[in-house]
Amino acid sequence: MKTAFKHAVELAELDRASPHTLRHTAATWLMQAGCDLWTAAGFLGMTVETLERVYGHHHPNYLHAATQSISYGGRLHRSRQK
Predict the structure, then answer these.
(1) Which end of the chain has the lower number of beta carbons within 10 A, N or C?
(2) Considering the chain, what is the average pLDDT of its residues?
(3) Whole-model pTM?
């Protein structure tokens, strides 16, 4: 694994890269794409809790409830419920 990865990094003409770098990038991209947490965690080989804690802020749903609550749309929705 180490030799093959090192060779791939050389072929790609990268200055520095590690399997951890690729895992980090994959986790970030999966979150940005809105991937289901359970599915992403399984693919990456980490717990849902770790994925959410470390990479959750990249997910489109991060703070969604807060932005909806403070936005005009959220206030309008609440006023109609009364």
Answers:
(1) C
(2) 87
(3) 0.69
Other Cβ atoms closer than 10 A to 72: 7
- Across the range 62-75, mean pLDDT stands at 77
Nearest-5° Cα angle at 49, 47 to 53 = 125
What whole-number distance in Å separates Cα of residue 8 and Cα of residue 11?
5
Cα angle vertex 26, ends 7, 33, to 5°?
A: 145
Q: What is the largest CA-CA distance in the chain?
A: 65
Domain range summary for the chain, segments of one domain joined by + = 18-81
Contacts of 58 (CB under 8 A, 6+ apart): 28, 31, 32
